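Hi! If you just cloned this repository, the fastest way to understand the data is to look at a raw example. We've pasted two of them here, unedited. The first protein comes first, obviously.
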Amino acid sequence: MKKFWSVLGTAMLIALVALTAASLFSCAKKPAKITVATDATWPPMEFVDENKNIVGFDIDLVNEIAKAEGFQVEIKNTAWDGIFAGLAAGNYQVIASSVTITDERKATMDFSDPYVNAGQVLVVRKDSSGISSLADLKGKKVGAQIGTTGAIEIGKVQGVELKTYDEVGLAFEDLVNGNIQGVVADSPIAANFALQNAAYKDKLMIVGKPFTDEWLGFAFKKGDTKTLKLFNDGLAKVKASGKLDELQKKWLQ
């Protein structure tokens, strides 16, 4: 009998130690707080509002991921010209700043699963009809910022006249004034002017979906698989819950 209780006691002790270790491992697996860098100068993705708060699509998405995975987030407004160097130096764990996933960047940093396509879209006036693509504007003028992907895409469509601008806001102003019939720009930029801008949102609309693939992702220090997995797991939950679709409707549609 003593032997039985001795064996049982040993087994219980081993189980307790294993349970404690597993609990500690589980707690250690998820940090209490993660610092996220963003260059808050690109509405509607990330910007500083009238109350000096950093807001936008990326910020909302990061907060939803944090909620899904049970950690806190500290947002750090960081200038773009040093944002990648700061990641490599370990000044923060994540960049959430409309970073396009490219093969060149993959060589020096890791990326989450893509979460939105910031490809080129076409913006027209709301009083336009029968327009769903660039091809529908043959014989018309379409504007874009000089040297951008938008300008390149317009140039590919035979019969569409490209008008370039030093700053994309001037193209949208010309569109509202009827001097051109469309503008091609990155989808977040288009959303900012056509959907968020009080002066334009009742006059402009985005037609169709992005016609180039320029996927955005969260960036991580090379080899930081722990934080990467945490964000990917949270992103998957946000997608499955439908919350990502809600954020896209709020900020980008």
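Ok, and the second one:
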Amino acid sequence: MDVDYYAVLRKAVAGKDAAARDEIYKDAWSLIRRSQLPREAAAAHTAALEDAVRRLEDEFATDDARQVEEINEVLARPDRNWKPLVVGLSALVAALAIGALTYGYLASQTPRTVSAEVKASAPPQKVEKARADTVAADLKPGEDGGSTGAGLPFAFQRQVVFYRTTVVPGSIVVDRENRYLYLIDVNNSARRYGIGIAQECQKGGSFFRVTNKMEWPDWKTPVAGAKDAADALLVPTGRPLGARALLLDKPGLIIHGTNSPKTIGHLVASGCIRLVNEDVEDLYRRVSVDTRVVFVS
């Protein structure tokens, strides 16, 4: 990738107010979405664009704060006619408010829509919540819904995103509420996967580690008092866990695959943390036993 988005956008937004900058950012994201780039290349361009937008908006916020300090110093002088400056200060405060709202909107929407975030147009919050709380039925025995995420909403497709965290690179972060799994990389980035999650895996602990890796495992209900999480996978009962599985150090807590992409992004009826088969195979290749897994809500 040879596009310096920071330099390009810096020239484009010079002298522009917050509303005009917002339109320029949207045009840039739209160009990437309409491009014919491969998925990972488009995600890399999106992450670079997001980073450039954040840097620019941080600079604008710093400049605006400096101007406010200068105005306050002038107002503090007893011999100065300050009334005309109050009008200017009010206008500046209004501009700062608009800029903050615009930046906040972009920051909240980007992870779900563009790189996802960045974790395209997100539906209203109530509609999204209703979707997320719907338990998606499993396929009937013998049915195959596919092993790729190509038909998923863009936000749930595998991609590299901007992700600021203190979690050590190489670790896994599972966002239960938003239905994302992140494999943390360096430089505030992560590889993000859409997930489905079973109700029993919604709660209970935050810090785990990978204890075993399995190919084409089968599921059975965990036995109380099982000594090993792998005990839950010894007897096939017609509930396949997809192409790969990562077993954690808690019986029944498993990251696994599925051949039912339509269940990604939803609560699911069986299993635990599921990814489409292509995604869980990609994750399986990238992690090792003893990888740290952090659950967040």
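That's it. A detail worth noticing about the second one: The two ends are 34 Å apart (CA to CA).
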